[in-house]
Amino acid sequence: MMPRVTLLCSDGPHHLYLAAELLKAFGSLRVIVESGHDQAASLRRNGHYRAYLWTLYHGLRRKLFGYEAYRKRYFARTEGPRTWTALSQEPDVEFHDTPSINDPLVGQILRGGVSDAYVVMGTKKIGSAVLSAIPAGRILNIHGGYLPDYKGNHCFFFALHEGRHDRLGTTIHRVSAGLDAGDIVSRHCVQPAEGDNSETLYSRAEKAAIDHLVARLRRTPDVSTWDSTPQEARGRLYRMRDRGPLVELAHHLGRGWRRRPVARGAGKEPVR
């Protein structure tokens, strides 16, 4: 009997790639999706107007800089479901949309059938009520940052901004009550090269982490037996508001000052 897997995720291209890879590997999948639109709407509905406006700002910035289009191209598939609609219509996919990952209905869905492994990617912080519906030790998160140094949002950008190229990585870790605080299972780092920026590095590391996770799940689906290491007490939590226009400008100007002279006709130094 094939292992049963539940995915709790948002609706980005990399989340769809993960869902399709899990379906391909295990033949069936339960998916609970909290869309980016619903995440933003929840901020506004609950009166978190500052966070809501920063979310809108970063969505616009990603479109203007071409990052959104790049991510769609990078994670595009040539086989299997290529859209969320197509995935939801797969006969062996149990698909659920939710306005919040902490909606009471999510707990009911999870209690409706126990999975061997639960994978989280891109959702808001999962509360204790939903976590209580998942067997302890079976849930992992794919975090787009090098833990414990970079928690929260825009971790690749700030690692580049601070010149910490050894901290450009995605972390697979166990889910706990804290934000990005569970024991570390593995890190998947990338090295910047000519033409890279925070988006290209992020996408590369996320794909490496996804591919590694799916392959390991196929070998050992009982994630409770996987080795993991407690996080050290260091690092910082980065929020949407931390990457404002002035920080973005300083980052690009700083990259300009650090450029090395290049021969006439050589490629331009990448802006990261």
UniProtKB/TrEMBL annotation:
InterPro entries, per database record: Formyl_transf_N, Formyl_transf_N_sf
E.C. code: 2.1.2.2
Biological process, per Gene Ontology: 'de novo' IMP biosynthetic process
GO cellular component terms attached to this protein's record: cytosol
Domain Formyl transferase N-terminal: 118-215
Keyword Transferase: yes
Listed GO MF terms: phosphoribosylglycinamide formyltransferase activity
Pfam families: Formyl_trans_N
Keywords: Purine biosynthesis, Transferase
Enzyme class (EC, first level): transferase
Involved pathway(s): Purine metabolism; IMP biosynthesis via de novo pathway; N(2)-formyl-N(1)-(5-phospho-D-ribosyl)glycinamide from N(1)-(5-phospho-D-ribosyl)glycinamide (10-formyl THF route): step 1/1
Alphabetical list of PANTHER family matching this protein: PHOSPHORIBOSYLGLYCINAMIDE FORMYLTRANSFERASE
Name of the protein this chain belongs to: phosphoribosylglycinamide formyltransferase 1
Lineage: Bacteria, Pseudomonadati, Pseudomonadota, Betaproteobacteria, Burkholderiales
